[in-house]
Amino acid sequence: MIDLYYWTTPNGHKITLFLEETGLPYKIIPVNIGKGDQFQPEFLQVAPNNRIPAIVDHAPADGASAIPVFESGAILLYLAEKTGRFIPDTLRGRVDTLQWLFWQMGGLGPMAGQNHHFNNYAVEKIPYAIDRYVRETARLYKVLDRRLEGREFIAGDYSIADMACYPWIVPHERQAQELNDFPNLRRWFDAIRQRPATTRAYALADEINTTPSVSDEASRQILFGQDATTIK
């Protein structure tokens, strides 16, 4: 059994996509980040960076005690290795998949996240910041669009690289991006959206959370007002 500490963010969706594809038994433990659940001591034992998602695998391959894993990319890699699925077993295929997984972790996710913040959450609208991150998001979309030319998926067969990237393309309108400007990306996006596991994962999210994480000044402070003093 996998315990999944989860909230309905792009990084959270990555893990439900994988778990729904593989059928691994899992239990969701909601972590409402707008209410500060991510700062509870029991969660910090699993995820010391106080960010979702995180997992605890109660049946690791070595048969020993439960293994906690935090950071969405690390979780995807751990689960792929545990199941032997959605990661190639060849050297070159594995390298190809991992470099695009890390591309999402180091590029698409952080840049699109800043795009979300300055476009949708920042109290003060700063034109330079908005333009900076909208343009960088567009550049990254184009990199992925070019990569997908002549390819069904990012690294051959459907893999953890696709699962990592897809949830960050879902809110493309909030990122001020037009998917029709990126035809290869659009085709890839539509193909993943139609997968039954994707449908189940996003339907699950709708059941767990029906309100925005940032709904008042208290939730804004929880999400955007943290500094070194909040690390206990």
Please identify, by name, the CATH architecture of the largest domain.
3-Layer(aba) Sandwich
Count of distinct strands: 4
CATH top level class name of the largest domain: Alpha Beta
**3D shape:** globular
Indicate the radius of gyration in whole angstroms: 18 Å
The secondary structure category is: alpha+beta
Helical percent range?
A: 40-55%
The strand line-up of the biggest sheet is 2-1-3-4
Biggest beta sheet summary: 4 strands, mixed
Short description:
With 232 residues, this protein is α+β, with helices and mostly antiparallel strands. It has helices spanning 10-22, 41-44, 72-83, 91-121, 127-147, 160-169, 183-193, 196-208, 217-224; strands at 2-6, 26-30, 54-57, 67-70. α5 (127-147) packs across α7 (183-193).
Describe the structure.
The protein has 232 residues and is of the alpha+beta class. The chain has two domains: 2-85 and 198-230, Glutaredoxin; 91-194, Up-down Bundle (Glutathione S-transferase Yfyf (Class Pi), Chain A, domain 2), CATH 1.20.1050.10. 53% of the residues lie in helices and 8% in strands. It contains nine helices and four strands, in the order βαβαββααααααα. Strands 2-1-3-4 form a four-stranded mixed β-sheet, with helices on one face. Strand 1, helix 1 (10-22) and strand 2 (26-30) form a beta-alpha-beta unit. Helix 1 (10-22) crosses helix 6 (160-169), helix 1 (10-22) packs across helix 8 and helix 4 packs parallel to helix 6. The longest helix is centred in the middle third of the chain and has 31 residues, at 91-121. The two termini are 29 Å apart. The model has no long low-confidence stretch (mean pLDDT 95). Belongs to the GST superfamily. Residues 1-87 form the GST N-terminal domain. It comes from Pollutimonas nitritireducens.
